[in-house]
Amino acid sequence: MIKRLGILGGMGPAASAEFYRRLTELTPAGTDQEHIPCVIWSDPTVPDRSTSLINRDDLPWEKLKRGIQGLKNADCDLIVIPCNTAHFWYERLVDLGVPIIHIVDSVVEELQSQGINSGTIGIVGTTATMRLGLYQHHFRKSGYSCVTPGAHDMDTLVQPAIDYIKANNLTAAHNLLMQAIDNLRSWNVSAIVLGCTEIPLAVKDSQFRGKPLVNSIDSLVKSAIKQFKKDL
C-alpha cells in the first residue's frame, strides 16, 4: 500500500508549487487526514535539463539521483517529477528502487479519459523535449501521431515564453504561447498537450478554439491520486 508520495521538484520551483496546489485541490478529501501525505524535495540548483540534453552532458544526474535517494530515505513509496525534461533520466532514476509515475504516461491517460484515443496531438514544450522526442516516442506507441512547433515558433514563441515564465512574466508568456498553440491548431489536431510544467502557469485554459488543452501538471496530479487511492 502506498503511504507517502514523494515530489522531486524545484525544476522550476513555481511548477512544483503548482503541482502541490493542484494535488490539494483535486484530491477528493473532506478532512485534512484524507489528503495524500507528501514529501517535497525542491532543488532549484539542478542544472538546466534542456541545456544539458542539447549539450549531451549529464550534469543534472547527480542532483536528480540525490533527490530520489532523499525521498526514498523519507519513506516515499511513489514518486512524481513535475518536470518533463527530467524524464529523459527516467529509466536510471527508476533503477534507484522507488516507482516513479512517468509524466507522459499520465498525459496519455488523460487523453484517453477524454475519449481521445487516436488522432494527431499537438505538443508544446521545451526545445529539448521537442527535439529529442520525449512525447513523440510514447505517443506513437499509444496510437497517436504528433505535431510540434516548427523551428521558428520554438525560437521566437515557445522557448522565450518558457523563459518569461521562469522570470515570472506570465502575461508576456501567455501571449506568445497562444500564438504557438494557434499555429498548431491549424494542423487539425485532436488536442494540444502543454508538455512543459512551466506552461500551465501562464496558460490556464482547458480549451482553445474548440480544442482540448491537456495540462501535464494536472495529468500527473490525477495519476498520482489514482495510484494512491486505489491502494487504500
Topology:
Layout: E1 5-9, H1 13-26, E2 38-42, H2 49-55, H3 61-73, E3 78-80, H4 90-94, H5 103-113, E4 119-124, H6 127-132, H7 134-141, E5 144-147, H8 151-166, H9 170-185, E6 191-194, E7 207-208, E8 211-215, H10 216-230
Parallel strand pairs: 1-2, 1-3, 4-5, 4-6, 6-8
Antiparallel strand pairs: 7-8
CATH level-3 fold name of the largest domain: Rossmann fold
Low-pLDDT runs of 5+ residues are: none
Tell me the strand percentage band.
5-15%
- The span between the termini is 7 Å
CATH class of the largest domain: Alpha Beta
Can you walk through the features of this model?
By secondary structure, the chain is an alpha/beta fold. The protein folds into two domains: 5-102 and 219-230, 3-Layer(aba) Sandwich (Rossmann fold); 104-215, Rossmann fold, CATH 3.40.50.1860. 48% of the residues lie in helices and 15% in strands. The protein contains ten helices and eight strands. It has helices at 13-26, 49-55, 61-73, 90-94, 103-113, 127-132, 134-141, 151-166, 170-185, 216-230, and strands at residues 5-9, 38-42, 78-80, 119-124, 144-147, 191-194, 207-208, 211-215. The chain has a five-stranded mixed β-sheet with strand order 5-4-6-8-7, with helices on both faces. A three-stranded parallel β-sheet has the order 2-1-3, with helices on both faces. α1 crosses α10 and α5 crosses α10. The longest helix has 16 residues, at 151-166. It is globular. The mean pLDDT is 95.
